[in-house]
Amino acid sequence: MNIHKNARLTPHGREVMVSRIESGQTPEAAARAAGVCPRTARKWVARFKAEGVEGLKDRSSRPHRLYRPTPAAIVERVESLRRQRFTGKQIAADVGVSPATVSRILKRLGLNRIQALEPAEPVRRYQREHPGELIHIDIKKLGRFERVGHRITGSPQQGKSRGAGWEFVHVCIDDASRLAFSRILPDEKKESAVAFLHAAVAYYRSLGVTVARVMTDNGSCYRSKAFRKACRDLGLKHIRTKPYTPKTNGKAERFIQTALREWAYAQAYPTSDHRADELPVWLHRYNWHRPHGSLKSKPPISRLALAEGNLLRLHT
Q: Can you tell me the distance from the alpha carbon of 122 to that of 132, in angstroms, rounded to the nearest whole number?
């Protein structure tokens, strides 16, 4: 509840004032102590006797009934025009009422925002039950640099590394456990995509996880015959996302955001080579130590239920 900054009484203050009057103090004395007139004091006493403590709370100033409510036919006409994407002023001119009336009607109907006419599709979250059932693969393009970049210096001229080129961070994350694997490769061509797929499957195999499916977007390297053959040779079912729907591959997209925030842009690296050297260190922290929000604040490695002997062997 928002209390006016100059309000003499709050619900608690009203209760104190009423209790004083009920205990024998005169309304004039209690009102003087509260800084209000005796008439106000008597009003709150009457409400307290009729409704109890609930009667001392603030009430809406809205009238119980309208003297001249907007006819139902006009309300229906306003709603019909709004669903045809008419603006408030267009509706007012067409119906013959004021824009303020149209605004109140639309707000009451829940149509005051145009996005209400096209409600967003509900988010459908999914998670595989066992590690290895599905891995997500994606690529993030990062610029190479030979000096501290403009994100740190704040100067586009001082932070430029002309001709340094690009590097491509290939990422993979397991749907069930959120275990991640990543490598920096020189391009996003089919040869690099196939090499990364083999490396990712081998990494998960080293942790006792057998990969069954792989999900990618519709990039040319993932649509290539070479990638298709690699999936077939590895016994993987290849799933591609619906075009222009990156949320289907959301776990990979979210991992990329986390990697950019906590690794790529987390500190001022002298060169991109220093940044690349830090990637394995950060990945180890992500998989083995960093609490994950979707895993009840446990690290991804906890979802594998490794025996103590294997856990110590793999962690060293």
A: 27
